[in-house]
Each structure stands twice: as C-alpha cells, then as structure tokens.
Amino acid sequence: MRKYLCSAGVALFPCLLSLSSGAWAASEAPPVKAVLVKYKSDALAHGVRRAAPLAGVTAADPVTRDGALVRYDLNGMTPEAAVAHFAADPTVAYAEPDYPLRMDATPDDPALTEQWALFNVDDRNNDIHALDAWNLQTGDTHVLLGMIDSGVDYRHEDLQDNLWINPGEIPNNGRDDDGNGYVDDIYGVNVVNRSGDPMDANKHGTHVAGIMAAVGDNGLGGVGVNWRGALVTCAFIDEDGFGYTSDAIACMDYMVDLKRRGEALAAINNSWGGGAPGQAMEEAIQRVEAAGVLMVFSAGNDGRNNDHYGHFPSNYDNPAIVSVASTDREGELSGFSNYGLEKVHISAPGSDIYSTLPNHAYGALSGTSMAAPMITGTLGLMAAHNPNLDAQALKQALLDGADKVAALQGKIPDGRRLNLEKALLSADDRPGFRIAPETDVVDIPQGEMRSLTARLQPLFDWSGMADLSVSQPQAGVYVQLPRALQANESGDMTFSVSAETPVGRYFVELKGVESDKASQPFKSAKRITVNVLPQGTRDFDYANGEATPIPDHNSRGLWSPMLVSENLELWDAAVSLDISHPWRGDLLVNLLSPDGRSFRLRERGGLTEDDLVRSYRLPQMRNIPSQGLWFLQVIDASPFQEGVLNHWDLRLRGLPLVAAELTERTLQTEDVTLPKGETTEVVLPQHAVGKVKGVAVDLAISGAWLGGYKVTLLSPAGTEYVLHDKNGSFNDYDLQLADHFITDFHDEDAAGAWKIQVARIGLDDKALLRHGAIKLYIAPD
Hints:
This protein is mainly beta and about 775 residues long. It has a 7-stranded parallel beta sheet with strand order 7-8-6-10-12-13-14, with helices on both faces. It has a 5-stranded mixed beta sheet with strand order 20-27-26-22-24, with no helix packed on it. It is flat.
C-alpha cells in the first residue's frame, strides 16, 4: 500500500496546516577617490586659510553650508598620505577618506520591504539578519540546492536565472541524453509522470523555491536567501497538495544520482510530511546521508510536540536531517508550529512569508513549509562561503551560529533561531571578529546627534586588532567612530544629522579589516539603519498602572484606556505590556487609536506559555491622530483560564502641534421609565462644544429581560452605536455598562443633541433607565 504525504503549507491542506569565500562577495567596493577635511570652528572664525592643495590633491566645493567640511579629490595621491597631511594641520579637526556611497549587499528588489523575515527594519531582533550576511556572501551558481516538492514555475521572472540547467541534456530533442531515465530533464524531473518537466502543479513549490533562491539585485519582485544559486527540482506533490512515499523516495534517489555525477549538491529541501514511519523512506534518507547531502524537513504544523507525537520524515534519527520549526514576527514559535527538544533542531521565520508564486506572481504563505527553505537556503550560502565544509560540519556550523532565544527555550534545543550572519561567520572557521553594536537602528531628529557603543567580538579565539571605517549614506548624515578596536574592546560611535537632511531612512555600513595583515586580512561588516525624523520630534510617555481583570471568554474583551492630551504629528509608537495569564495562547491584543483604527499586537501565539511581558514597536502609526482616548484591547478567546492586565505603557514619538488641551464633559439624564413594546428616546442635556476625541458610556437598565430590548447611542451628527442588542439568556435581567468606551464618534461635532434610544419588544411590565450618562473628551474647534 502506498503511504500518502501532504505538503506543509498553511494554505494547502490541513494535514500540516498544512562564491567563493571572501569578505565582499557581492563585489569589491570602488576605490576611495577623495578625502574629507573638517576645519576647526575657531580657525574658520578667524579666517584661517585652508591647507594648501598638494600635488595630487584638488580642492572641491565645500560639503557643508558653513564651509567647515571640504572634499579634496585625489589625483594620484593615496588616501592614507592625504589624510596624514591634512591631519597634521593645526587648523584641521579631522581628516578621513571619502568612503564610496554604496549599500553593499542590499538588493534593489522592490518587494524587499515585504520580506520581514530577511530584513525587518522596525524590529531587527526577529529577522535573520540577511543584510549583514549578504555583506559576506550572496551565493554561488556552482552550489546546488535540491527541492522535493510540487515542482517549480521555471518560467518565473524572479527564479529562472537561478535554476540549475542539466549539462548532460540537450533541450527538446526527445532523448534521454544523460541516461538517467528521464527525457529532457533540463530543470529537474516529475517522478509522478516520469517526465523531465517539473512545472509546478500547485503554488507550494514555487513559493518554497523563491524563499531559497529568488534572484537578488535584479530589480524584480523579492529576493531569496541566495541571490545567486542553482536550484534543481523534483516534483512529486500534485495539485491538491498530496504525494506518495514511493515518489518521494524516487526524488531522493534522483538527487543522490546528481551528487554522484559530480554536482555540488549541498542540501535538499523537503517541506512536507505525514504518514507512518517506514523502512523504505528511512533507507532512502540513509542513501542521501551516504552521498554527503543534508536533508532539511519541515517539522509540521499541528502545534504539538514531535518528541511525543511522531512526525515523519522529520523525526527519523539520521544525522543528515535538519528538522525546522516556525517563528512569527514577534520572534516566538508560530501558533501552528510543531516543536521538540529532541526531534526538532532549529527554528526559522515561517509566518507571513512573502515569496514567488506561479505566473510571475508574488504573495505570502505561512507554515513550517516556509521555515524549512530559510534553512536550506542558508546551508547553500554557507557552502558557497566555505566549500571545504562537509555535510556534518555545515549542520554543526548552522546550529552553532543560531541565536538563543528565551521565548523558544523549552521548545527548541537551546532556543535556537536562525541567524544568517552568524551562520556564515560560524562556517568560516578562520579566527576573526564580528562588529556588534548595541543596536542597529538609530532614530535621529533633524539637527541632532545620537551615540551608540559597538564591541569587536572575537571569533574562534581571535585576539588581534581591526581598523574600522564607515560608508556615509549621503550628505547630511555623518558618523564618527574609533579608528581601530582590539578584540573585546568597545568604542563609541556618534551619528549626527544636519537640519537640512531630508526626513527618511538611510543606511550606514560599519566595516572592519584585520590590522597589520597584508595577505587575506579578515573582514567583517555591520549595517546600521538611520531613521531621520522631523526636527523637534520627541517621545511622549503614558502609563496605565491599574491592574484590571480580563473578562474570560468574552468577544469584546477588556478595553483599558489611555488619555493623550498632546496633539502630535505622529511618527511611530511603542507599547509595553505586562499581563498575567496561565495560558497566553488564549490572548488576542489590539491597540486602538482615537479614530478607531485597530492594530493587532498579538494573536494567540506562544502555545502553552504563561504571562505576556513584552514590547511592540509600531511604525505603521505614522500620521495617525494622537489626541484623545487610546485603548489596549485584550480578548481572552477561550474559557476556564483567567488573567489580569497588570499595567501597560504607551510611547508616542512625534512632532508637537499647536493645540488646546482636551476637556471632559459629562452628559446625563434622570431616571426614565421604559414602557413595554415601545421605543423611548432620551435626549441628554447638552453643554458641550468642540470636536469629539473619545466617548465613555455609563448606563443601567433594570426590570427587563436582556433579550427583550435594544439600546442605541446617537450622536448629533446622526451616527448610531449599538450598546446592547437583545442578547441574554432567560435568567438575565438588569443591564449594567460602566466605562464602555467608543471610538466611532471621533472628530464629530460635540454640540447638539446626544440621544439614548431604547427599543423594547419584551412584555415585562416595568423597566427603568436608572442611569444614563456619556463622558465626552473634547478638543476645541
């Protein structure tokens, strides 16, 4: 009997949610063609003449408006000689090479901003640090990666240049030229129909292929872990997401044959699983192991522990296997992902992964199917970086280079999560160093400066010194840093921005070169993101420290308010949470802005872990209205487990705008009788003028069955908000709303008639509106 397998992509089937080594692998930097000279302010004030030009140096226009910083073009003189000459001048504050303006290893693929897993500029702790890694290596077309899946769209604009082409096959001649049993297997094979056409029957394989090896720096779509590479495909999964054990084995043997023919096959991606363990599959994997090739498997999407529940083939005990779990944007285990301290080796991003789709399309999918090719692509990049590593050395270097994440402890061995940069450094077994700044994102308002500390972290017992330099992104952003650091030494870097520097995002690359080593010095680089903010931008901090129980199994949840009086041109925001809960996987957490927009912070992630204590940065808040009531909404989606919001903090970063302070006005009514079978409209006494920035309702109705009436709040503009709509069991009487917050009326005029409307359909003789009040938070017109 054949065993049925299925692909591990969320959108496919519920079975599983279901170059050579060198420092600047992409290209050598262009030569330094000028030096920058900064003159002391007192020298300029006294009209001191600038240093006389030398033979081989030509003065150019000033770089800064005040004339203090001047560029001197080099016409034959070396940068070192020119810097030494100018630095000896007592009127000079400093001199340094004018480093080339370039963003090394930063692809121009337009959808890179969609690929949070590769480069998440707003939360770098949770991406795989791809930009830093690409300074070391971008791939090699001589390194082959295999993919056993549903096939690949080999006509895709962002894949075709990175697909392996069979050197032993003459295209379209109808013959099996290389004698491997397949006719015209140019890009790979389809073992289901025994053809040489691996065209994707599903979208799964094409998506997986793009994660590993979508062409980089080609101005199209996104980018894969490998900018350059060679990807060979064996198709065995059909259009419905299914395949068979026998066909999977045939694919493995096809890959082994390629290795034996001399192809530099480093690893095979297998984003699928299912079925019971079997000897045939195990022996096929052993043949792959004997060929010196790694097998990367997705760990599965059942949200369970693979140590206790068999998931195959990922659970086989074979040293060639790398089993991969999935993490989300928060850096935690994806809610669907399997895990295990014994049967899973490492995790990688697998939630909302943007990649290629058939017919030149692109899109996001989720699953351990997406996490596995992150690892396979990494192994290919490592093999390109150090071709001398065998399969087991590659695997060990991958694991040694992983980040150790506290949130994954107890689920993944050592809490391992992929770090592409560290994996490459681990694969390069030469002693060397890594530039390690305290942060790699710096926010600076126009006309200000910021400092941060960087340490020279030694690798493999390196104990030397490195010369440091920096590439300036463009005029208006300046960086000063130590000339050199020793192993484990730290130094301060200062970033400064002129008042005229345009607001936006810039990149600065720190470079280190091993000192006093003429032949093959070790090199390393680290990219810093500089966000230039509008002049006058600053942080505003707010806190709500009132511990509040979270309603259990309640769809509206807890609304915890935060009143913001400042009117800001908002740049971004950050939220810090402290929630006690025995099962945080039950929780959905949203931040609601004063105009009613909702921003999801968390959606039932973290499986069985308790409590939720963490921070979130929200760049998408730019230009959202700041003034008014903000809310943290916490929804406990499951019964039985109760929690408490201990406190939460809100930090708004923005430019203050001229605006009056908010005022509070309370509109309320006396007790009102509610006749049965009638609609009663109560007009609240009015004395409010201005724009509404928030509303809170207090209301009590007694003497009537909750299922027998509807309560609506109407604004002067005619906007209706339903407070209660005939919901309640037969024993539920008396409605009590306290601090029921509403965002629907944002920026409406407060002046006019506010009404509470109660429509009764019940037959209770007596019903009474005992208390009806609304609190308006108002800004003057």
